[in-house]
UniProtKB/TrEMBL annotation:
Cofactor: FAD
Alphabetical UniProt keywords: 2Fe-2S, FAD, Flavoprotein, Iron, Iron-sulfur, Membrane, Metal-binding, Oxidoreductase, Transmembrane, Transmembrane helix
Originating organism: Micromonospora auratinigra
Topology versus the membrane: Multi-pass membrane protein
Segment forming the signal sequence: none
Designated name of the protein: Predicted ferric reductase
Listed transmembrane segments: 20-38, 50-72, 93-113, 125-148, 160-181, 193-213
Amino acid sequence: MTINGVGPTTTRPGGPRAHLVLWTCLAANVLIVESLFFLGPSGKNELLSIARFVGLHAALLTMLQLVLVARIPYLDRRLGMDRLTLWHRWNGFGLLWLVVTHGLLVVLGYAALDGAPAARTLMALAGVPASLLGMLATAVIVLVAVTSVRWMRKRLPYELWHAVHILLYVALVLALLHQALETTTLAGPLPGAYWWAMWVAVGTALVYGRVVVPLWRNLRHGFRVAAVVPEAGNAVSVYVTGRRLDRLPARAGQFAIWRFFEHNFWWTANPFSLSAMPDGRTLRLTAKAVGRTSAGLRQLPVGTRVFIEGPYGAFTGAAKVRRDTLLVAGGVGITPVRALLEELGGSVTVLYRVRSEAEASLLGEVRNLARSRGARLHLLAGPTAPPISAALIANLVPDVAGRDVFVCGPPGMNMLVLKALRQLGVPRSQVHWERFGLG
């Protein structure tokens, strides 16, 4: 299964505190930068002053953009990579408008200063190294934003979209060079030192979370495919082993980003949930054949080298605030739910919605786990099965308001379940959900 955005009804362990830390740090830096801006020298005219003000805020949003995808353990465990990815997406569109606005104001400001047409001023600025670097960075950001629009994103192969997205690092380098050459970014030694110290801190967090930690974990554990097992519903389970897996910080309900070196190119990666509770000896993912990567997992040779980023995610038992639990799964969303069923204590009820019993992946395992752990399983299979509604949940789980509820499935099912839980008065702090689609 893959991960995406989290809605307003979701809470995470330590989430409120992590919210406070993240947004307080952002607000404090915005306040400091704005103070340094207003205490510094003004621009050559009003438009250029406004352009510099907008540019500084565009740079601050860029820093936030990098922090959101730096995979900082503190934020990931408390907010979840899915929520951080969603914020990254919306922050990206805000960054786009600020960057474009900054560029337009610079052109108009110099055009007014020189008394020249905007088009001629634009061509003249293209001959200035600092301005040219800024233009190139803007062009890359616009390209990435266009490919991230939902209509376009659905029509692009994941691999192509990911490759285009990587160009943002090119834009970042161009933007940093632009700022280094543009001496009016923050004038003065102390403001300049503060500005570049922020960039160093953000860059360090990014390199640590995205490069150092994954490389260290893979060198330490030496992940390889141990077995490949076909499952019902056109799914397949891949068992991965390695050294000292008991020291890998993995929990039931989490996911990892997987690369199989002898199956795809090294840059081809896909997020899949752990479909069994980590036991310190093996990790297991279960994927449905919906794309080239997941469909080809059936042909993975045993011994294939695996590169793993993660595990990530806050869809774990650490989010619980009540003793008892309701687990709701739809389709291949059963994968993290099955892992949670293996770990959670207390009274557990499982609602499993599938198109047909024959397509119910891991159903045998879920039944056996439910039987051995004294959990109740309700299989809602086929077109005649009633939709998941407030009435259905109240009938099957009368004490739902006193339980934590974990929901994982297609977006349509998720929305129905969340609406039903609101109608039943289940507190927000007890509702935890994820949905398909990274990006």
